Sequence to fold (198 residues):
Amino acid sequence: MISSLRGILTEKHPDTAVIQAGPVGIEVFITLNTYESLPETGESCQLYTYLHVREDILSLYGFADPEEKNLFLKLISLNGIGPRNAQSMLSGIKADEFRRCILSGDIKSLTKIPGVGEKKARRIIIELKEKLSEEELAEMTGSAPAGPMDRRVEEALAGLETLGFRKTDVLKAVERFALENPEAETDTIIRHILRNKK
Fold:
């Protein structure tokens, strides 16, 4: 696995860059955010990389910082999202803004990314939250301010706490149900949790 690449930047375009590493010029697929972070051509450059291997091709993806690379890896672990799709999505949003959308369940902001509709945005939020450990969520919360919590989620959590549930035990289930059922009111969410958390 090629985890990083250092050399002289010889070409840069909004979606690709070429880095001269010794006698070899290596083409790397990049996001628009990484493109904006690149130095001038002829200068030294380092990218954090991911090598995507298919039967007929090897593709190297590069990122200016490890946080964006980590988000890319999380995205391509989801069903139906390949490297080029993830590259395109991360070109439409900054890494810290993307994290904020995941933490706060901000579907509206994700749908502003080209190629991401409401259904896809909802699925990304649900599945990424399930893949993130409690430690990763805590780390993300510390590095990016979360947006306002869905009113229904907040009220449902408060109601469930009065019924003896711990917030940490039901948070993901409440958020998932609220995202999958945007018309459901607080009482419907609470009843769903009561039925499924016995």
